[in-house]
Amino acid sequence: MKEKNFVSQKFRKYCIAKLSISLSNGGKIGVAMGHDYGLDWIDQDALYEKTKHVFESAINKKKEKKSNPPDPFTLVAQSIISESTLENVLHFEVERKINKTLSNSVGLWHQHILSLAPGWVDLGSNGGGIDLKMEPGFTDSRFGKPLVAEVKNRFNTIKASDEKEVWDTLDLAAKTHGAIAYIFQIVPKTSERYDRPWKVSGRPEKENIRCCDGATAYDIVFQRDNALHDLYEVFPLIMDDILDGGISVSNDLAERIYSESIPK
Q: How far, rounded to the nearest angstrom, does the alpha carbon of residue 83 sit from its chain's CA centroid?
């Protein structure tokens, strides 16, 4: 069976939304201003701009930065142990470095995108260890208090030795703002939803110091079910706009990767 293209259906809707007939241009088809990815719950122009800013920066840094020389002993040992050609191992090493760079960029991207939700602000480098907070006057209906959050792309981004320091930062922020402090772990350890007090060795368990998976975080911030998955579905379209190239991603494989990593 032929694989479905990940963007085919979305791309069709996307093109219909973006193409317009311009009578002033002799009836020719032209691209309408603005971006429409079918997400009416987020500022889609800001979504495009923030995505462009994060990933163009990563691409430029990759081009400018001189690659560190490879470790020949490690590569040869890997080739022998994995029973793979040295050429394949070298290619894998290049891809691994790219993946690491992009993974760091994706964490920052989530922080910027979450700040597009009404009532939320991105604190940037001035947050004192906190990435996001609710604007004055906004509260979470479950707690009757505002939320502050630290965003991590993966559950294991923080070293175990550093967890106490991060917990202390969240505790201080909760006290300072009279808030509930979260650590958003976009990719959790297992593909399951959770929203619970964050357990850190050597620190007490508190209801106002919490952790949750990425899908739950997006639901909380945007007040919309499955917001993260909806965003994931159109992510290739946004990247296609930025790179100005005809992308093609396998629908079946993309969905399998998502379901194995992030809960729906």
A: 35
Q: Show Cβ contacts of residue 138 under 8 Å, excluding neighbours closer than 6 positions.
A: 119, 120, 146
CA–CA gap between residue 103 and residue 99 (Å, rounded): 6
- What is the model's pTM? 0.82
Q: In whole angstroms, what is the distance from residue 142 CA to residue 101 CA?
A: 37
**β-strand partners of 250:** 5
* Tens digit of pLDDT at every position of the chain (264 positions): 444 444 444 444 444 444 432 333 343 333 335 899 999 999 999 999 999 999 887 667 666 656 678 889 999 999 999 999 999 998 888 788 778 778 888 999 999 999 999 999 999 878 888 999 999 999 999 999 999 999 999 999 898 889 999 999 999 999 999 999 999 999 999 999 999 999 999 999 999 999 999 999 999 999 999 999 999 999 999 998 988 777 778 889 999 999 999 998
